[in-house]
Amino acid sequence: MSRRARQDALSRTALGVFRLNGQFLSVAEKLAEPAGLTAAWWQVLGAVLPEPLPVAGIARVMGITRQSVQRIADLLVRDGLAVYAPNPAHRRAKLLAPTGAGREAIARIDPGHAELAARLTAELGGPDAFEEAVRVLDRLSAALEAVEAATERKE
Questions:
Q1: Mind giving me the DSSP string for 40-109?
Q2: What does the angle CA 148 – CA 47 – CA 81 come to, to the nearest 5 degrees?
Q3: Could you give the CA distance from residue 133 to residue 135 in angstroms, rounded to a whole number?
Q4: 10 Å Cβ neighbour count for 152?
Q5: Cα separation, 55 vs 138, whole angstroms
Q6: pTM as predicted
Q7: Which of 23, 107, 119, 144 is deepest in the core (most CB within 10 A)?
């Protein structure tokens, strides 16, 4: 593959991912709205459903800034959808955990989420095709992370 072809592939990939991100955000806003959430609130609450996390940990998982997560976390706590809990590993970095109301809000999204997953699976050609799409996106993300880490080591 020529240098120009590699650059074109990178540009097409970036534009495709940006478009896909916009599409996912739009769909997420529609799914979250009946539960009284925004897509961003849903993302942050969803990140702490399995276990409480510090804001910085949520930001790392989501690939966004700690400040953005902090603003959303504060709003979730204000509205009773999450609480800050003590963090045994770090006195100042509290853990964010969903409340019962937060879990209920997420549960209200589940039927629409399940329907969208089923429709998208069918549109992609079945579960195997969907899993392959996920593998490709995971591989792309890991490769970009590795390139960024190598670049940082050089600097």
A1: HHHHHHHHHSSS-EEHHHHHHHHTS-HHHHHHHHHHHHHTTSEEEE--TT-SSSPEEEE-HHHHHHHHHH
A2: 140
A3: 5
A4: 8
A5: 23
A6: 0.84
A7: 144
CA atoms within 13 Å, Cβ hemisphere of 86:
2
pLDDT tens for 85-110 read 998 888 788 999 999 999 999 999 99
Can you read off the two tokens belonging to residue 104?
């209920």
Q: What is the DSSP string of 35-55?
A: GT--HHHHHHHHHHSSS-EEH
pLDDT digits (tens, 9 = 90+) for 62-80: 888 999 999 999 999 999 9
pLDDT for the residue 91 = 79
The answer to whether the beta carbons of residues 60 and 78 sit under 8 Å apart is no
CA pair distance 100, 17, nearest whole angstrom: 34
Instruction: For Cα atoms 131, 65, 80, give the angle at the middle one, nearest 5 degrees.
Output: 90
Cβ proximity of 99 and 80 under 8 Å:
yes
The pLDDT of residue 154 is 80
